[in-house]
Design brief:
The structure holds 2 protein chains of 2 kinds. Chain A is mostly helical. Helices cover 81% and strands 0% of the residues of chain A. Chain A is built from 4 helices and no strands. The longest helix of chain B is centred in the middle third of the chain and has 26 residues, at 138-163. Chain B has helices spanning 7-10, 15-24, 26-45, 50-59, 63-72, 79-89, 92-99, 109-115, 121-132, 138-163, 177-189, 196-212, 217-233. Chain B is globular. Chain B is mainly α. Classes of the chains: A mainly alpha, B mainly alpha. At the A-B interface, helix 1, helix 2, helix 3 and helix 4 of A face helix 3, helix 4, helix 5, helix 6 and helix 7 of B.
């Protein structure tokens, strides 16, 4: 049984769940106490996108020009198709082809 | 057969609302399935078992943070690092939860606590759109969450089972899938020229942080810088 559900994995999963659920429920229950107008409300609203680009920026920079190219294709596809899978497939394909030919 | 005014039929979680939310999210199902598939392949490579990932998806239900957790998975699990990364990446759920205040208006605490778990980015976006038309209920949200959960789980499981069959994922560029997913999601959140400086600083801060700071602290540095920049550059007439 412990081969399939490692105890330390259960700990990590539990911590992740508590954190994430805490944010969801906390946001809903404390909605009135969060800033709704002004600069901090605006910054909070812009935060999600900034977190996402912050996460992938070093990895992209590490890939150099390949990162720029594949990233540009991914973004372009995301804009045009508005489909997550299509954008992912495009970026992945660029990287695969570049590694094949270059 | 319960009458139409029976709470179970016409309350906040009315079956017809759940069904409506479920149907409205069908177009998103394949994307979620594919995204889950990529996570499944990564999880398999990292030694995460099928029951572990199923449980994680069930109780966390946040794809981007599950990706980062899988990336950090090691024989000795870095619990604190995964916890911090989960907090930072999922911080948006604080705002998402808050934005659903009106949808949950008039419900009991238990209904709120149970309903707010089944919120993924996709069914949240669909529900907010429906709310603008006055057609969003907790049941609608929940139904969308249900189909997201089903296809997410299916994708993850399939990825884990079949993933071992891909000998060199890098040859197929699959190591880029995670980055591509985040880039695509970020593109959807971009609002225009006003984001240029804050997001640029987030990128610069992240790259600098990756060079000088250990672990995933670079995420905090980059997003923190961007957050402050957005607040500092905000103007009353900017058009919130």
């Amino acid at each position: 049984m412990t081969d399939l559900l490692h105890p330390d994995a259960l700990v990590v999963i539990a911590v992740m769940a508590v954190v994430t659920y805490g944010l969801r429920a906390g946001g809903l229950l404390l909605a009135d106490r969060l800033p709704r107008t002004g600069r901090w409300a605006y910054a909070l609203r812009r935060l999600p996108g900034m977190v996402l680009v912050a996460v992938v920026a070093p990895g992209l920079a590490h890939l150099g020009w390949l990162g720029v190219g594949a990233g540009a294709v991914t973004v372009a596809l995301a804009i045009v198709t508005r489909n997550l899978f299509a954008a992912m497939a495009g970026g992945v394909t660029v990287v695969a082809l570049a590694r094949l030919w270059l | 057969m319960p009458k139409d005014n029976h709470p179970a039929v016409s309350g906040p979680f009315a079956p017809r609302d759940i069904a409506a939310g479920f149907r409205r999210c069908v177009p998103l199902a394949f994307s979620v399935f594919a995204y889950g598939g990529v996570l499944g392949v990564l999880a398999d490579a990292k030694g995460i078992t099928v029951p572990e990932l199923m449980l994680m998806s069930l109780v966390v239900f946040a794809g981007s943070s599950q990706f980062v957790a899988a990336e950090l998975w090691a024989p000795v699990l870095p619990v604190a690092e995964i916890a911090l990364a989960t907090l930072v990446i999922n911080l948006r759920y604080l705002l998402i939860g808050a934005s659903l205040r009106d949808v949950f208006a008039g419900t009991t605490l238990i209904q709120k606590l149970l309903g707010i778990h089944m919120v993924a980015d996709e069914n949240w976006a669909v529900t907010m759109a429906a709310a603008r038309e006055g057609r969003a209920t907790p049941g609608f949200l929940w139904g969308g969450g249900l189909i997201m959960m089903l296809f997410w789980q299916a994708g993850c499981i399939l990825g884990q089972i079949l993933g071992g069959g891909i000998p060199e994922p890098e040859r197929f560029g699959l190591d880029f899938a995670f980055t591509a997913a985040f880039l695509a999601l970020a593109t959807g959140l971009w609002e225009g020229r006003r984001d240029l400086v804050p997001w640029g600083l987030a990128v610069a801060g992240a790259i600098a942080g990756a060079l000088w700071l250990p672990g995933k602290w670079y995420i905090l540095l980059g997003s923190g810088l961007g957050f402050v920049a957005a607040a500092v550059l905000w103007t009353e007439d900017g058009g919130d």
